[in-house]
Amino acid sequence: MTEISTPSAPLRVVVLASGTGSLLQSMLDNLDGTVEIVAVGADRPCRALTRAEDAGLTTFLEEYAPAGTPGHDRAAWNHRLAERIAGHRPDLVVSAGFMRILGEEVVDRFRGRIINTHPALLPAFPGAHAVADALNYGVAVTGSTVHVVDTGVDTGPILAQRAVDVRHDDTVDTLHERIKTVERQLIVDVLHAISRTGYSIDGRKAWINHD
Ligand code: GRF
Predict the structure, then answer these.
(1) Which residue CA neighbors atom 6 of ligand 1 most closely?
(2) Which of 2, 89, 103, 202 could hold 78 in an S-S bridge, CB 3.0 to 4.6 Å?
(3) Does 115 count as an annotated binding residue?
(4) How far is the CA of 1 from the centre of ligand 1 (A)?
(5) CA-to-CA separations, 187 to 25, 65, 82, 110, 196, in angstroms, rounded
(6) Ligand 1 first shell, C-beta below 6 A
(7) Which of the seven top EC classes does this enzyme belong to (predicted)?
(8) Domains present along the chain, CATH in parentheses
(9) What is the Å distance from ligand 1's center to 186 Cα?
């Protein structure tokens, strides 16, 4: 069993994002003083980075060159990303809409200390198209999961989940927006809980420690 304690106060968090950054914005607006976002990193220029800059936060951009484009080197990118993250001495790394799979070097270096928010009730619908996949499958309930990151695609031990009902007339956009409303609150609640008590991982199981 691994206990992830949270020695420093406030909890030092590096956020990774790739998109519009509404999850980041929720953290910026709602986190109390027990959690400090010490840097925001991205793999591409994105609204999340400009939100972070507007909030006066330190940012870093580690652009990923996709396969078949000049400079493509997944291992080297992972190494640079690990170095960038480590430079901010985080207690925790939060992947909040970061659309790249973190490689072994990053996961190993911050083992058990990276969490991800995913817009489905894992283990159903992992991957980048979770909302569309749930809608197309015809489930009546989906939701949001916060889990510890391992080297798989959304396979790590689950820390928290909240459900969202699917409506018969939902589109990917309407459903995703309702899920994101839940996600924005869930990630804040999880971070506050972690800053208070830390969390534990035992095989496939993870839980936020009791007070
Ligand atoms: C969230 O639903 C997240 O789970 C998914 O991408 C979305 C990010 O939204 N991977 P935003 O960029 O924070 O608005």
Answers:
(1) 97
(2) 103
(3) no
(4) 30
(5) 11, 29, 22, 19, 14
(6) 19-24, 48, 96-97, 117-119, 180, 183
(7) transferase
(8) 9-117+147-157+183-198 (3.40.50.170)
(9) 13
